Protein backbone atom coordinates (compact mmCIF):
# COMPACT_ATOMS: atom_id res chain seq x y z
CA UNK A 1 0.00 0.00 0.00
CA UNK A 2 1.34 3.42 -0.95
CA UNK A 3 1.72 5.90 1.91
CA UNK A 4 0.51 9.39 1.02
CA UNK A 5 1.56 12.54 2.88
CA UNK A 6 0.45 16.14 2.36
CA UNK A 7 2.67 18.68 4.15
CA UNK A 8 2.98 22.06 2.44
CA UNK A 9 6.37 22.86 3.99
CA UNK A 10 7.33 25.22 1.13
CA UNK A 11 4.72 27.71 2.35
CA UNK A 12 3.68 29.09 -1.05
CA UNK A 13 7.03 30.87 -1.32
CA UNK A 14 7.01 30.80 -5.15
CA UNK A 15 3.60 32.52 -5.27
CA UNK A 16 0.15 31.50 -6.44
CA UNK A 17 -0.42 30.34 -9.97
CA UNK A 18 -1.75 32.97 -12.36
CA UNK A 19 -3.59 31.10 -15.11
CA UNK A 20 -4.41 27.46 -15.65
CA UNK A 21 -2.21 24.41 -15.04
CA UNK A 22 -0.87 23.14 -18.38
CA UNK A 23 0.50 19.77 -17.30
CA UNK A 24 3.11 17.90 -15.28
CA UNK A 25 6.91 17.73 -15.45
CA UNK A 26 8.62 14.45 -14.52
CA UNK A 27 12.00 14.81 -12.77
CA UNK A 28 14.55 12.44 -11.21
CA UNK A 29 15.91 13.62 -7.86
CA UNK A 30 19.40 12.33 -8.72
CA UNK A 31 19.89 11.38 -5.10
CA UNK A 32 18.96 8.19 -3.30
CA UNK A 33 16.99 9.83 -0.48
CA UNK A 34 13.49 8.77 0.51
CA UNK A 35 10.48 10.91 -0.38
CA UNK A 36 9.79 11.61 3.31
CA UNK A 37 13.31 12.95 3.86
CA UNK A 38 12.49 15.95 1.65
CA UNK A 39 9.80 17.11 4.09
CA UNK A 40 12.37 17.89 6.79
CA UNK A 41 15.01 19.08 4.29
CA UNK A 42 12.76 21.63 2.61
CA UNK A 43 10.92 22.59 5.80
CA UNK A 44 14.19 23.79 7.36
CA UNK A 45 15.08 26.01 4.41
CA UNK A 46 14.63 29.78 4.34
CA UNK A 47 12.69 31.38 1.50
CA UNK A 48 16.00 32.35 -0.10
CA UNK A 49 17.33 28.79 0.11
CA UNK A 50 14.17 27.41 -1.47
CA UNK A 51 14.96 29.45 -4.58
CA UNK A 52 17.55 26.77 -5.39
CA UNK A 53 14.64 24.56 -6.38
CA UNK A 54 11.79 22.35 -5.23
CA UNK A 55 8.84 20.54 -6.83
CA UNK A 56 5.28 19.95 -5.65
CA UNK A 57 5.78 16.19 -5.22
CA UNK A 58 8.54 13.80 -4.10
CA UNK A 59 7.90 10.13 -4.79
CA UNK A 60 9.64 6.85 -3.99
CA UNK A 61 8.59 3.20 -4.15
CA UNK A 62 6.53 3.36 -0.96
CA UNK A 63 5.48 6.99 -0.52
CA UNK A 64 4.00 10.00 -2.33
CA UNK A 65 4.70 13.30 -0.59
CA UNK A 66 3.30 16.68 -1.56
CA UNK A 67 5.40 19.50 -0.12
CA UNK A 68 3.63 22.34 -1.99
CA UNK A 69 0.01 22.81 -3.02
CA UNK A 70 -0.64 22.51 -6.74
CA UNK A 71 -2.40 25.88 -6.92
CA UNK A 72 0.96 27.41 -5.98
CA UNK A 73 3.97 27.65 -8.26
CA UNK A 74 7.20 25.77 -7.59
CA UNK A 75 10.79 26.43 -8.64
CA UNK A 76 11.41 23.11 -10.40
CA UNK A 77 12.38 23.83 -14.03
CA UNK A 78 14.63 26.95 -13.90
CA UNK A 79 12.19 28.31 -16.47
CA UNK A 80 9.41 30.88 -15.99
CA UNK A 81 6.76 28.98 -17.97
CA UNK A 82 7.65 25.62 -16.44
CA UNK A 83 7.50 26.97 -12.90
CA UNK A 84 4.29 28.93 -13.43
CA UNK A 85 2.14 26.47 -15.38
CA UNK A 86 3.38 22.94 -14.67
CA UNK A 87 3.27 20.65 -11.63
CA UNK A 88 6.66 19.17 -10.70
CA UNK A 89 6.97 15.49 -9.72
CA UNK A 90 10.38 14.33 -8.46
CA UNK A 91 11.08 10.58 -8.72
CA UNK A 92 13.67 9.07 -6.38
CA UNK A 93 16.56 7.91 -8.51
CA UNK A 94 20.26 8.10 -9.30
CA UNK A 95 22.85 5.48 -10.24
CA UNK A 96 22.85 4.05 -6.71
CA UNK A 97 19.07 3.52 -6.59
CA UNK A 98 18.16 -0.10 -7.27
CA UNK A 99 16.26 -0.70 -10.49
CA UNK A 100 13.39 -2.26 -8.53
CA UNK A 101 13.06 0.77 -6.24
CA UNK A 102 13.35 3.22 -9.13
CA UNK A 103 10.65 1.49 -11.18
CA UNK A 104 8.30 1.42 -8.18
CA UNK A 105 8.92 5.13 -7.62
CA UNK A 106 8.22 5.87 -11.29
CA UNK A 107 4.94 3.95 -11.17
CA UNK A 108 3.81 5.96 -8.14
CA UNK A 109 4.75 9.15 -9.98
CA UNK A 110 2.66 8.04 -12.97
CA UNK A 111 -0.31 7.45 -10.67
CA UNK A 112 0.05 10.93 -9.19
CA UNK A 113 0.44 12.49 -12.64
CA UNK A 114 -2.76 10.75 -13.75
CA UNK A 115 -4.64 12.08 -10.72
CA UNK A 116 -3.51 15.68 -11.28
CA UNK A 117 -4.14 15.66 -15.04
CA UNK A 118 -7.61 14.23 -14.42
CA UNK A 119 -8.33 16.81 -11.71
CA UNK A 120 -7.34 19.72 -13.95
CA UNK A 121 -9.29 18.19 -16.87
CA UNK A 122 -6.22 17.88 -19.09
CA UNK A 123 -5.55 15.28 -21.79
CA UNK A 124 -2.58 12.94 -21.47
CA UNK A 125 -0.29 13.78 -24.38
CA UNK A 126 3.08 15.30 -25.33
CA UNK A 127 1.84 18.80 -24.49
CA UNK A 128 0.80 17.96 -20.93
CA UNK A 129 3.46 15.37 -20.01
CA UNK A 130 6.82 17.12 -20.08
CA UNK A 131 10.46 16.49 -19.16
CA UNK A 132 12.73 18.83 -17.21
CA UNK A 133 15.22 18.85 -20.08
CA UNK A 134 12.59 20.41 -22.37
CA UNK A 135 12.66 23.62 -20.31
CA UNK A 136 16.35 24.05 -19.59
CA UNK A 137 19.73 22.49 -20.36
CA UNK A 138 19.87 19.55 -17.92
CA UNK A 139 20.38 15.78 -17.90
CA UNK A 140 17.14 15.38 -15.88
CA UNK A 141 15.35 12.97 -15.84
CA UNK A 142 18.64 11.09 -16.29
CA UNK A 143 17.81 7.73 -14.66
CA UNK A 144 14.62 7.50 -16.74
CA UNK A 145 16.59 8.30 -19.90
CA UNK A 146 19.09 5.55 -19.04
CA UNK A 147 16.46 2.91 -18.23
CA UNK A 148 13.95 3.53 -21.01
CA UNK A 149 16.02 5.04 -23.82
CA UNK A 150 19.53 3.74 -23.17
CA UNK A 151 20.69 7.35 -23.25
CA UNK A 152 23.53 8.17 -20.82
CA UNK A 153 25.29 11.34 -21.92
CA UNK A 154 26.06 14.85 -20.70
CA UNK A 155 25.12 16.22 -24.11
CA UNK A 156 21.71 17.63 -25.08
CA UNK A 157 19.18 14.90 -25.69
CA UNK A 158 18.12 14.45 -29.34
CA UNK A 159 14.45 15.17 -29.96
CA UNK A 160 13.87 11.53 -30.91
CA UNK A 161 15.10 10.45 -27.45
CA UNK A 162 12.91 13.03 -25.70
CA UNK A 163 9.85 11.93 -27.67
CA UNK A 164 10.57 8.25 -26.95
CA UNK A 165 10.70 8.85 -23.19
CA UNK A 166 7.62 11.08 -23.23
CA UNK A 167 5.65 8.47 -25.16
CA UNK A 168 6.67 5.84 -22.58
CA UNK A 169 5.53 8.13 -19.74
CA UNK A 170 2.26 8.86 -21.54
CA UNK A 171 1.51 5.17 -22.08
CA UNK A 172 2.21 4.40 -18.41
CA UNK A 173 0.10 7.31 -17.12
CA UNK A 174 -2.83 6.27 -19.32
CA UNK A 175 -2.82 2.84 -17.65
CA UNK A 176 -3.52 4.40 -14.26
CA UNK A 177 -7.02 4.60 -12.85
CA UNK A 178 -8.26 5.36 -9.37
CA UNK A 179 -5.18 5.14 -7.16
CA UNK A 180 -3.97 6.02 -3.70
CA UNK A 181 -2.55 9.44 -4.41
CA UNK A 182 -2.60 12.88 -2.90
CA UNK A 183 -5.78 14.53 -4.13
CA UNK A 184 -5.17 18.01 -5.58
CA UNK A 185 -6.79 20.55 -3.23
CA UNK A 186 -9.64 22.76 -4.25
CA UNK A 187 -8.13 26.16 -4.90
CA UNK A 188 -9.22 28.45 -2.06
CA UNK A 189 -11.02 31.59 -3.06
CA UNK A 190 -8.50 34.42 -2.68
CA UNK A 191 -9.69 37.33 -0.55
CA UNK A 192 -11.00 40.29 -2.49
CA UNK A 193 -8.08 42.58 -3.20
CA UNK A 194 -10.17 45.75 -2.83
CA UNK A 195 -13.16 46.15 -0.55
CA UNK A 196 -16.15 47.74 -2.26
CA UNK A 197 -17.46 50.99 -0.76
CA UNK A 198 -20.43 50.85 1.60
CA UNK A 199 -22.69 52.14 -1.18
CA UNK A 200 -21.15 50.95 -4.41
CA UNK A 201 -21.95 52.74 -7.60
CA UNK A 202 -23.92 50.82 -10.22
CA UNK A 203 -21.47 48.74 -12.25
CA UNK A 204 -20.49 50.13 -15.62
CA UNK A 205 -21.70 48.01 -18.51
CA UNK A 206 -18.84 46.58 -20.57
CA UNK A 207 -20.02 48.26 -23.77
CA UNK A 208 -19.89 51.65 -22.02
CA UNK A 209 -16.23 51.32 -21.04
CA UNK A 210 -13.70 53.14 -23.16
CA UNK A 211 -10.16 51.84 -23.15
CA UNK A 212 -7.37 54.37 -23.61
CA UNK A 213 -4.37 53.00 -25.53
CA UNK A 214 -1.17 53.06 -23.45
CA UNK A 215 1.65 50.53 -23.24
CA UNK A 216 3.55 49.87 -20.03
CA UNK A 217 4.33 47.45 -17.22
CA UNK A 218 2.48 47.48 -13.90
CA UNK A 219 4.30 46.24 -10.77
CA UNK A 220 1.84 45.89 -7.86
CA UNK A 221 3.03 46.53 -4.31
CA UNK A 222 0.05 44.68 -2.86
CA UNK A 223 -2.44 42.05 -4.01
CA UNK A 224 -4.82 43.46 -6.62
CA UNK A 225 -7.86 41.97 -8.33
CA UNK A 226 -7.96 40.74 -11.93
CA UNK A 227 -11.47 40.91 -13.46
CA UNK A 228 -13.07 40.33 -16.86
CA UNK A 229 -14.79 43.71 -16.73
CA UNK A 230 -13.47 46.80 -14.89
CA UNK A 231 -16.13 47.01 -12.19
CA UNK A 232 -16.21 46.35 -8.45
CA UNK A 233 -19.12 43.90 -8.74
CA UNK A 234 -17.54 41.83 -11.52
CA UNK A 235 -16.37 38.35 -10.58
CA UNK A 236 -12.73 38.19 -9.52
CA UNK A 237 -10.91 35.91 -11.98
CA UNK A 238 -7.46 35.96 -10.38
CA UNK A 239 -5.04 38.16 -8.46
CA UNK A 240 -1.72 39.86 -9.13
CA UNK A 241 0.67 40.03 -6.20
CA UNK A 242 3.77 41.82 -5.02
CA UNK A 243 6.81 40.68 -6.96
CA UNK A 244 4.76 39.97 -10.10
CA UNK A 245 4.06 42.23 -13.06
CA UNK A 246 1.84 42.54 -16.10
CA UNK A 247 2.44 44.21 -19.45
CA UNK A 248 -0.66 46.20 -20.39
CA UNK A 249 -1.75 47.78 -23.68
CA UNK A 250 -4.42 50.17 -22.39
CA UNK A 251 -6.24 51.43 -19.29
CA UNK A 252 -9.79 52.26 -18.20
CA UNK A 253 -11.21 54.63 -15.58
CA UNK A 254 -14.25 52.88 -14.16
CA UNK A 255 -16.13 52.52 -10.88
CA UNK A 256 -13.78 54.90 -9.09
CA UNK A 257 -10.58 53.10 -10.08
CA UNK A 258 -8.03 52.96 -12.88
CA UNK A 259 -7.75 49.46 -14.39
CA UNK A 260 -4.83 48.47 -16.60
CA UNK A 261 -5.91 46.10 -19.37
CA UNK A 262 -4.08 43.22 -21.03
CA UNK A 263 -4.64 39.86 -22.74
CA UNK A 264 -4.46 37.03 -20.18
CA UNK A 265 -2.91 33.59 -20.72
CA UNK A 266 -6.36 32.19 -21.55
CA UNK A 267 -6.63 34.59 -24.51
CA UNK A 268 -9.28 36.76 -22.84
CA UNK A 269 -8.92 40.40 -21.88
CA UNK A 270 -8.39 41.11 -18.20
CA UNK A 271 -8.41 44.24 -16.06
CA UNK A 272 -6.10 44.77 -13.07
CA UNK A 273 -7.11 47.38 -10.49
CA UNK A 274 -4.15 49.76 -10.29
CA UNK A 275 -5.19 53.11 -8.78
CA UNK A 276 -7.90 54.80 -6.69
CA UNK A 277 -9.18 57.73 -8.77
CA UNK A 278 -10.52 59.73 -5.80
CA UNK A 279 -7.36 59.62 -3.66
CA UNK A 280 -4.88 59.17 -6.48
CA UNK A 281 -3.27 56.29 -4.54
CA UNK A 282 -1.58 53.78 -6.83
CA UNK A 283 -1.42 50.09 -5.89
CA UNK A 284 2.04 49.74 -7.43
CA UNK A 285 4.42 51.36 -9.88
CA UNK A 286 4.30 51.85 -13.62
CA UNK A 287 7.12 51.70 -16.18
From TrEMBL:
Gene Ontology molecular-function annotations: N-acetylmuramoyl-L-alanine amidase activity
Catalysed reactions, semicolon-separated: Hydrolyzes the link between N-acetylmuramoyl residues and L-amino acid residues in certain cell-wall glycopeptides
Entry keyword Cell wall biogenesis/degradation: yes
Compositionally biased spans, kind Pro residues: 185-205
Stretches assigned to the N-acetylmuramoyl-L-alanine amidase domain: 6-159
Keyword field: Cell wall biogenesis/degradation, Hydrolase
EC number(s) from the headed UniProt entry: 3.5.1.28
Organism superkingdom: Bacteria
Enzyme class label: hydrolase
Region (Disordered): 181-207
Domain SH3b residues, every copy: 213-280
Alphabetized Pfam families for the sequence: Amidase_2, SH3_5
Gene Ontology biological process terms in this record: cell wall organization; peptidoglycan catabolic process; peptidoglycan turnover
PANTHER family, per the entry: N-ACETYLMURAMOYL-L-ALANINE AMIDASE AMID
Protein name (Swiss-Prot/TrEMBL): N-acetylmuramoyl-L-alanine amidase
Organism: Brochothrix thermosphacta
Amino acid sequence: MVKVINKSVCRGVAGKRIGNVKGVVIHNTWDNNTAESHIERLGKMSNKQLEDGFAQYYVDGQTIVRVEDTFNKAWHTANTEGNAYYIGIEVRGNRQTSKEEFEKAEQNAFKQAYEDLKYYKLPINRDTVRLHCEFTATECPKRSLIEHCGYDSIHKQPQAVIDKLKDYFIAQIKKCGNTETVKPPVTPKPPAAIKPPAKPKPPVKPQGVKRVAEKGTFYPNTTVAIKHTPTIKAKQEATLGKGESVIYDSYVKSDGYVWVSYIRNNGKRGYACSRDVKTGKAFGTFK
